[in-house]
Each structure stands twice: as structure tokens, then as C-alpha cells.
Request: fold
Amino acid sequence: MIKRTLLIENKSSITTKNLQLVIKTETKESTVPIEDIGFLVLDNPEIYLSIPAMNLIVENNTAVIICSKNHLPNGMLLNLNSHHIQQEIFKNQIEASMPLKKQLWQQTIVEKIRNQGQLLTKITNQKNTFEFLASKVLSGDTTNMEGVAAQQYWKHFPQPNLEYDGIKRGRYGDYPNNFLNYGYAILRAAIARALSGSGLLNTLGIHHKSKYNAFALADDIMEPFRPIVDEKVFSIMQNYNEQELNTAIKAELLQLLTRTVYFKDEKSPLMVALQKTASSLQQCYTGNRKKIKYPKLWNSMDTE
Reply:
């Protein structure tokens, strides 16, 4: 089931009544069934969210995303008890062997590099060597082919209406980094929600290990999906003259969650596909699968 994404940008009071989220602003009041909401994005410092509403939201496995004063997502609230065998799943995840984690990371980086190459081909109409780079990824990516690919990827990523190609990526960089970072943060929240729904511990990553990172596993699994954000930002740069985040551009980026992706025998909205990917990772930890089930971001006709 595709869940709704709510973006709240005005001073508001959010409470609950009869399993409905009641959103009051200075000019109107609206209600939304809590079961319909997948993501609640709060982007105003004067939003009041009641504790009963908060509890019902997390019980529904809705991700609450809080934005900072620069309007970029800054934190997430997730359900910590979203699976009936949570303890067993945590145990399998914690006890996962290093060879298994290295193999899972290899699979993840191979998918990421392939997706980067496919997107570059799609938007530049030029061949590239990314399939070759993907074939060189070792267990654990010990030779850092991810970094090699990233350098080439951003060097050749076109910027419409500008006199030069390439983007200098940075967490706090100039346009279009603000668009990219917003999209990545939404993607990260969606993946964290899917992982939590599969009973996995977001803090315990496959590759990312920073002691300050509470969402290391989400940061791992989001890597192959980043080109979805890159493609959307490229489209926004072609169709908008704005270089600052506004409501229209945020709405465009939030549409990523309903974008179609492709599995072998079916197509699926990204929001649903992420649940399948998360479930497959959980099965890798239990020994019931050997590979993470990543979707194809484009079908064959999309990239021709």
C-alpha cells in the first residue's frame, strides 16, 4: 500500500481524534487518517505535535522527519517495536559475520555503480565505463571502487543552463547540493522506515560504522538508490530557475517516494520496493537468502 507524505510548513497544531490526525493552522483545520500516512515532514519551528498523536503515528510505523532552520531534514522519529520477532532479528544482525557483511557491501556497491552508469548514459547519451568499474568491486570494496566511480560520476554529471559540466558535491555545498541533500535526506528516512518495519536495527550498519551515526544501516542501503535523487534533481534544474528550496521543489522531491522501480517480474512504487529490499536484507542475516533484493531503477526502455 502506498502511504501519503505530509509536508507541514506553516505554524500548526497537530493532535489526534478518532484515529485521525487533526492539523490546525491559523486559517483552517483538516483531518487525515493516521493509517494512510507514511511520512510526516515538519518544516516550521512553531509546530506543536501532541504526545498522543506522536504515539499513534509511530505505532503506525510512520516516519516523522524534523527539518532544521535551513529547511533540510535534521532528525527522524521511528517505531522501535515494529516487528513481532524483533529480538531474534536484532540477534541475527548483531552476530552477522564479517565475511557476510563484506559480501553484502560488495553487492550494494556493485548496484550503486551500475545505477550511476545507467543514469549518466540516460542523461548524456554517451557510453561510460561504469559497468567495467562495477565488475572490479571486491568483497568489502577493499579497493574503493565506490570512490573511483563517484569521482568520475560527478565530474561528468551535466548541469543544465550552465557553462560547465560536473558538480562539486558537498553536504553544505552550493546549488544544486541543497536539492540533492534534501532528496537524500528524504530517501534516507524512507529506507530507515523500511528497515525498522522489517525489525532491523538502523544503528548497526554493514559498512558505515561511525559511533555518532544512529542510521548507519540506512546509509548503507540507500547507496544504490541515490541516482533516483540525482535524476530528479537533474529534472528540476531543467525545469525550474530557482536555486533555493521552496515548497514546489520540496513537493517534487517528495514525489520520489512514489516513483516506479522494477523487480524481475513486477514493477513497484519506491516506497513499497524499499520494504522488499529491507525484508530481503533481514533474510540475509537469517541465512535464508544470499543477496539483497535491489530493484532496477529503470526498465530497459528507460535507458535506451
In short: The first strand starts at residue 4 and ends at 8. The domain at 86-286 is CATH 1.20.120.920 (Four Helix Bundle (Hemerythrin (Met), subunit A)). The chain has two domains: 4-77, 86-286.
